[in-house]
């Protein structure tokens, strides 16, 4: 039985006025569409419309609870063009999907920094700084995806002039440090302490055995913002453990090929195929699981908002903890037979076989006993 919780029109009508928000009205007033997506096959080719105020072409992609957390939008800068200077009282993280160019960031005090980017570059815009993006090519368009926390900010203030035209430097976030957008390599645990990654596709990662199958992982907290992001990679012939968390993770495939399974509790998994540029947005508390079926390692970037992470009393995300002890991660030992049979048959199309035996064996060493029903 489907569990998408659809109710009568009569009850739905009573909540109709709460469906639209100042944020959704703002997007509509800019003449732009919102794709209500859990899956976009390719961000690099998704259709865009002119965004007059910014000077490029764009579309918004929102998850099912974006009114309370974060949104995303895809922006294209036409060949030889630049976007208009812009400031915003919210945070933004950017991944360059295609093209080369530069960005200038400055504050009211007049401190100004310009840095260059190319495909796979990752950075954040410090809150309320003035900034302008330039396409460095006269022939090719440049395209990026930005993930922001605009929805709660626009919903809170409603006043667009305040959100987009307030003169104030948040100096603890940015005060014109000359190396602010330099690529730094210092790590603290899983965290890479930098405001700029030149090439997220080829960035070295750190081993993360907790998520299964010898994966690599690295986390970012850029421009001292409240949103964070991470990259995960998994080797040939492997897949990650299924897990669930809150809404607001925008997962973008950076390299490799494969698919994700997603399902709400109690339903059959559905399959979503990927390629470089695919966006997966797991809905609130849906289980999801990522599979590498190609001949190379597969890597994705996840942009997140804190509401994604439902944590235990120690502060550990429950998506990292076994369901057997109350977490939201499905152990390999507890997954459905379909998960393994589908993976084997997809790998065989490339003449490959699963390389999961070590991961299954390692899990058994520390697997908590199954609770007695
Ligand atoms: Fe996830």
What does this protein look like?
With 373 residues, the chain is α+β, with helices and mostly antiparallel strands. It folds into two domains: 18-165, Jelly Rolls, CATH 2.60.120.10; 187-366, Jelly Rolls (Sandwich), CATH 2.60.120. It is built from six helices and 23 strands. The strands form four sheets. Strands 2, 12, 13, 15, 16, 17, 18, 21 and 23 form a nine-stranded mixed sheet that branches. Strands 1, 3, 4, 5, 6, 9, 11 and 14 form an eight-stranded mixed sheet that branches. It has a three-stranded antiparallel sheet with strand order 8-7-10, with no helix packed on it. Strand 19 (258-263) and strand 20 (270-274) form a beta hairpin. The model has no long low-confidence stretch (mean pLDDT 92). It binds fe (ii) ion.
Name the helix and strand elements from N-terminus to C-terminus, one letter apiece: HHEEEEEEEEEEEHHEEEEEEEEEEEEHH
> Which molecules other than protein and nucleic acid are bound?
fe (ii) ion
Q: What's the pLDDT, averaged over the residues?
A: 92
Give the name of the CATH architecture of the largest domain: Sandwich
The overall number of domains is 2
- Secondary structure class reads alpha+beta
Q: N-to-C terminal Cα separation, in Å? A: 23 Å
Radius of gyration: 21 Å
What is the number of helical segments per DSSP (H or I, 4+ residues)? 6
CATH topology of the largest domain: Jelly Rolls
The low-pLDDT segments are none
CATH superfamily of the largest domain: Jelly Rolls
């Amino acid at each position: 039985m489907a569990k998408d919780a659809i109710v009568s029109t009569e009850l739905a009508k009573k909540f109709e006025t709460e469906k639209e928000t100042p944020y959704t009205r703002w997007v509509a007033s800019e003449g732009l569409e919102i794709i209500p997506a859990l899956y976009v096959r390719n961000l690099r080719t998704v259709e865009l419309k002119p965004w007059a105020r910014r000077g490029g072409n764009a579309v918004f992609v929102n998850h099912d609870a974006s009114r309370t957390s974060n949104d995303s939008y895809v922006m294209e800068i036409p060949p030889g063009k630049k976007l208009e200077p812009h400031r915003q009282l919210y945070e933004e993280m950017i991944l360059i999907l295609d093209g080369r160019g530069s960005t200038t960031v400055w504050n009211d005090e007049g401190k100004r920094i310009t840095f260059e980017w190319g495909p796979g570059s990752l950075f954040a815009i410090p809150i309320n700084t003035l900034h302008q993006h330039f396409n460095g090519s006269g022939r090719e368009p440049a395209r990026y995806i930005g993930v922001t926390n605009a929805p709660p900010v626009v919903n809170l203030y409603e006043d667009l002039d305040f959100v987009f035209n307030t003169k104030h430097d948040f100096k603890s976030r940015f005060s014109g440090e000359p190396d602010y957008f330099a690529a730094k390599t210092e790590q603290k645990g899983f965290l890479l302490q930098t405001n700029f990654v030149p090439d997220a596709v080829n960035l070295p990662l750190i081993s993360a055995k907790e998520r299964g199958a010898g994966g690599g992982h690295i986390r970012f907290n850029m421009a001292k913002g409240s949103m964070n992001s991470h990259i995960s990679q998994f080797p040939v012939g492997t897949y990650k453990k299924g897990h669930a968390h809150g809404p607001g993770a925008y997962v973008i495939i950076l390299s490799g090929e494969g698919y994700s399974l997603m399902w709400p509790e109690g339903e059959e998994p559905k399959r979503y195929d990927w390629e470089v540029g695919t966006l997966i947005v797991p809905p609130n508390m849906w289980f999801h699981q990522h599979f590498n079926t190609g001949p190379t390692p597969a890597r994705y970037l996840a942009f997140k908002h804190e509401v994604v992470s439902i944590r235990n009393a120690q502060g550990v995300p429950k998506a990292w903890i076994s369901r057997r002890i109350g977490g939201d991660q499905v152990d390999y030992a507890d997954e459905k037979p379909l998960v393994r049979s589908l993976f084997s048959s997809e790998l065989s199309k490339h003449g490959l076989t699963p390389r999961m035996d070590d991961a299954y064996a390692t899990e058994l060493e520390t697997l908590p006993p199954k609770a007695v029903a």
